[in-house]
């Protein structure tokens, strides 16, 4: 099999097909189901191995699990390899490093960051290291404790950025590959009450974009060679006229580095920005996500297509990005139970 595929995770029950594999048609933007698997509770976030054949899912429940899978190249089936306890409640995010040797996961309610070895057969090894976060924020309902929400690797370096929604901080860790340890390098303080959730890197410049779930803003940083962040701009993700409730969710930079996109739950939109030469943002406009609660989305690399996971309306929607960078709904939405994650696999399976 060759081509482009999508993997989706969801807030489904273990009795439902919570993880699905889809074929993506780059000429039309359409997606067609290929395979699915049951047996995992709330498989919310997925991390694809660099080999394009293995992936890890977080089972986002109390006393959660990380589950590794293999995509069968002959039958397009999904098969489970093994599981490991997440070492805390509600694992919300997982990252596989560029070498394919390590998985790093964060527990939202557990308040910690955890490192696991990945074996050559795709299986997860036992916990190698764990780092606990401490602290609170001004939002008493959402920031009562540390809540690490995501972990992303800086491309080309063993540096991992953990956004903590509870403490309003971004932690920079360096992975010691020899010892299997996470070493804290920097802690960047975000605006109080921002609730850092996810972040994105510019593909060719030293710009980092941090999305605030709680105040619906985006912070723009420059990144030095050591991995330290310097704030240069903060922009709103909502139109000035909007006065309703909103929590922002996902942020993504286009593969050519020209545009940035972020999703809003409440306003139910995708905000589009142009990225200037200095990394700062200029708002293009706001596009409907085509459903309710766009928790996650992806821009398919080297194409004008975007796929959004609208959790609250049980829909995947397809948007086409115009020459000016604004997404627009195309075609018919695809029903699927509570989708919350969409990942691209550019596979060449032999």
From TrEMBL:
One of its GO terms (cellular component) is cytosol. InterPro entries: Cycloisomerase_2 (IPR050282), Haem_d1_sf (IPR011048), Lactonase_7-beta_prop (IPR019405), WD40/YVTN_repeat-like_dom_sf (IPR015943). Gene3D superfamilies: YVTN repeat-like/Quinoprotein amine dehydrogenase (2.130.10.10). GO terms for molecular function: 6-phosphogluconolactonase activity. It holds the Pfam family Lactonase. SUPFAM superfamilies: C-terminal (heme d1) domain of cytochrome cd1-nitrite reductase. Belongs to the cycloisomerase 2 family. This is Lactonase family protein.
């Amino acid at each position: 099999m060759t081509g482009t595929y999508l993997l989706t995770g969801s807030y489904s029950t273990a009795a439902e097909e919570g993880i699905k594999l889809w074929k993506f048609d780059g000429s039309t933007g359409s997606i067609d189901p290929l395979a699915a698997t049951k047996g995992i509770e709330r498989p919310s976030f997925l991390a694809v191995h660099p080999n394009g054949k293995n992936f890890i899912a977080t089972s986002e429940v109390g006393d959660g699990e990380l589950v590794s899978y293999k995509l069968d190249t002959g039958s397009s089936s999904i098969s489970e390899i093994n599981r490991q306890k997440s070492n805390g409640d509600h694992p919300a995010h997982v990252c596989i490093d560029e070498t394919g040797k390590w998985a790093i996961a964060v527990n939202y309610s557990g308040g910690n960051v955890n490192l696991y070895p990945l074996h050559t057969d795709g299986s997860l090894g036992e916990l190698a290291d764990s780092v606990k976060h401490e602290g609170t924020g001004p939002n008493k309902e959402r920031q009562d404790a540390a809540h690490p929400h995501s972990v992303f690797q800086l491309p080309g370096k063993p540096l991992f950025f953990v956004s903590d929604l509870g403490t309003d901080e971004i932690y920079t860790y360096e992975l010691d590959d020899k010892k299997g340890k996470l070493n804290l390098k920097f802690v960047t303080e975000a605006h109080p009450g921002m609730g850092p959730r996810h972040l994105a890197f510019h593909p060719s410049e030293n710009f980092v974009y941090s999305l605030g779930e709680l105040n619906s803003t985006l912070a723009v940083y420059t990144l030095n060679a050591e991995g330290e962040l310097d704030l240069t701009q903060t922009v709103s993700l909502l139109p000035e006229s909007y006065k309703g409730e909103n929590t922002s969710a996902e942020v993504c930079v286009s593969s050519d580095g020209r545009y940035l996109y972020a999703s809003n739950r409440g306003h139910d939109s995708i905000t589009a920005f142009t990225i200037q030469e200095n990394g700062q943002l200029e708002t293009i406009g706001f596009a409907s996500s085509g459903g309710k609660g766009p928790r996650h989305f992806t821009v398919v690399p080297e194409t004008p297509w975007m796929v959004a996971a609208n959790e609250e309306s049980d829909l995947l929607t397809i948007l086409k990005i115009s020459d000016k960078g604004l997404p627009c709904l195309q075609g018919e939405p695809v029903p699927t139970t509570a989708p919350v994650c969409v990942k691209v696999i550019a596979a060449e399976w032999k």
